Amino acid sequence: MITALIIEDEAPARKQLLRLLSAHSDFISVKGEAKTGHEAIALIASLKPDLLFLDIHLPDMNAFDVLTSLEGPSPYIIFTTAYDQYALKAFEVFSVEYLLKPLEESRFHAAIEKLKQLISRHQAFHMDVDHLKTMYAQQLQDKKIQALAVKQGQAITLLDFSKIAYMKAEDKYVFVYHLNGKKYLYDKALHVLAEQLPAHFLRVHRSYIINTQQIKQITKDLRSRFVLHLNDEVSTRITCSNSFKDDIKKVLGVR
Q: Residues 52, 76: contact at Cβ < 8 Å?
């Protein structure tokens, strides 16, 4: 019997993993779940699992930040992600498997069988996080979108990045807000969009990505959270999540 942690911020994905793992309860015991990178780091340190089901992009950090924090031998890794395969070939060398969401049942069970074989051969992975991160970043850079295609009725509109104030996840949708106050529907998840944007876009909340070039002023509220005042026509104010505070301080140079 081996122990495992599920590190995944999306509740449906966690639920699906647990359902699929129920067929392997004689081999894998799930000891905990984490929705953020900070939760994951704490659980890994305390529980020292044999296996991680690890989402690549978490609300407060990415998978590489989590892996960099590990001390001692690396656990086996099965990456779960919504990203296209082009960016994931780099993971084949450094993990048991990568699984695209929504998870395919047959591929999931095949990954568990592959894990069993690796364990039976006492084969471990030597995680080179820096190399993995570099390879992934290079492949993503090659695929950066040059403009943002959004829906406007039955038409598709290409938005200039410089004219975008922020993006917001609302229920199951993502809306892109123009500097003129108009909003447009975008048909991919916010965390997928985050990896395709130019460097001056910053995730400041689970539900918000902002254009740092359109910040007019930064203040703090009574709970010491950063409040971003944007330079759009409706003078939008966005309260940042403390989960993203370190990233905000680093990128924006505030305290």
A: yes
